[in-house]
Design goal:
The protein is α/β, with parallel strands linked by helices. The strands form two sheets. The protein has a seven-stranded mixed β-sheet with strand order 5-4-3-6-7-8-9. It has a two-stranded antiparallel ribbon with strand order 1-2. The structure holds S-adenosylmethionine.
Amino acid sequence: MGRREDDRNEMLSLLKERGITDERILSAMMKVERHLFVLPAFVNRAYDDTALPIASSQTISQPYTVAFMTQELQPRKDSKILEIGTGSGYQAAILAELGCRVFTIERHMDLHLQARKLLERLGYRIASRCGDGTVGWTEFAPYDGIVVTAAAPQVPDPLLNQLAEGGKLVIPVGDLELQRLRVITNEGGSFQTKEVHGFKFVPLIGKKGWNQG
Ligand code: SAM
């Protein structure tokens, strides 16, 4: 077994210890090679359970955060999922491995192009675009799930409007220091919210997010 596979196994054990129980998510995280999504300087730390810097002063999320958000999203094979904040493309790859139809939006052109190229090279068929994800992607709505991987000051209403019946929106909401993850389910047009523990994300910047500083 190669060193990177050992590292991935260790990462998996840690995820299980921390409460990730969905076997499909665990095997997707075993399969996707996170070291391909990080900057060359951080390849040796790719399987540490930590967020790491990527281009444009952004981050690839911590593996536990990716696993936890995906588990809360409860995607099925063929679920139509919108991700806001493509970043490195890692979360999108995990969703594609789960058999989801993935749509992803990134506001930084360099990250969008880099992620698109990598995801294509790895054989994932993902629809991606550069733009402000706080207004969603109406063309393909409604979605069975929407995952926002940046910190929002409040829940953007366009995202609620683009959620299918029974669909879930997973979004960190709070101030710039700390956010709580909200899991909002569309139950027949009424939205049920569950709040789970604290996370720290880079800000969601856009029309329905934070102003650009
Ligand atoms: N999902 C990413 C991954 O797997 O690498 C993590 C990305 S990082 C934590 C959050 C990303 O959200 C950043 O790349 C940031 O540029 C992007 N972002 C922030 N505001 C956005 C917006 N309004 N629309 C789209 N992307 C946004």
